[in-house]
Specification:
Pfam families: MerR_1, TipAS. About 65% of the residues lie in helices and about 5% in strands. The protein has about 250 residues and is mainly α.
């Protein structure tokens, strides 16, 4: 049975205005709009709305959500599985921080003693476990440039950069079942190439280095595991897409 917009708002806890906005921007069109202008939402609409709200909970911007859910290769079940993994990671980080807060409160009351190390458990400043491999592969100069650039960014700038990286990974994950040398795949991998060479990581990747980086995504299981969190097989897809991009853009 179809639901009116006010009923959907009451059910989900989001506002009627928000639902209208989702309709206006093409993110969630109701199944039907009556002659009197009433929006009617089907069960299929509610499933999509749930998906959208999961993305919102994880901090995705509306434009990116629209790009993902309207992509012909979008797989709802696969996306839900990814959401679960990401939320479990988020929960684990929160639980670690809560444990540190609880211990700190007890320490402040004189109930327990905390070591210096314990006071900072749960904080994550994106330590890069692959730095040694990067140094060996691309040289110390490239790594030092990248580190210096990252350290010079504010926390907000680092967050923006992290969000942009996630957006690119998510977009690539949505395309990983198409041919790596297809137009869509190559346009998406160019975004990754342009991002790496935009100055935010402090180093310029030649086409050959870009191709080699893609190979490392597959050769090093830690890279593979990290990248495949966005979708199984993504690392392999990126390697092939990066190789195709490098080969097709070489100067003749």
């Amino acid at each position: 049975m179809a639901m009116k917009v006010k009923e959907v708002a009451d059910l989900t806890g989001i506002s009627v205005r928000t639902l209208h906005h989702y309709d206006e921007i093409g993110l969630l069109h109701p199944e039907e709009t009556t002659g009197a202008g009433y929006r009617l939402y089907s069960d299929r609409n509610l499933e999509m709305l749930q998906q959208i709200l999961f993305f919102r909970e994880l901090g995705f911007p509306l434009k990116k959500i629209k790009d993902i859910v309207t992509n012909p290769s979008f797989d709802r079940l696969e996306s839900l599985t990814l959401h679960r993994k990401m939320m479990l990671e988020k929960r684990n980080r929160i639980e670690q921080m809560l444990a540190t807060i609880d211990k700190t409160i007890q320490h402040a009351k004189g109930e327990i003693a905390m070591t210096r190390k314990e006071k900072f458990e749960g904080f994550d400043f994106s330590h890069n476990p692959y730095e040694q491999e990067a140094r060996a592969r691309w040289g110390n100069e490239a790594v030092e440039e990248s580190n210096a650039t990252l350290q010079g960014l504010s926390k907000e700038e680092q967050k923006v950069m992290g969000d942009r990286m996630n957006d690119i990974y998510i977009h690539l994950a949505s395309l990983r079942h198409v041919l790596p040398d297809s137009g869509a795949a190559q346009a998406a991998i160019k975004e990754w190439y342009d991002f790496l060479n935009s100055g935010v990581v402090g180093h310029h990747y030649s086409l050959e280095a870009f191709k080699g980086l893609g190979q490392m995504y597959v050769d090093d299981e830690r890279f593979t595991k990290n990248i495949d969190k966005f979708g199984e097989g993504l690392a392999l897809f990126m390697r092939d897409a990066m190789a195709a991009f490098a080969d097709s853009n070489k100067e003749s």
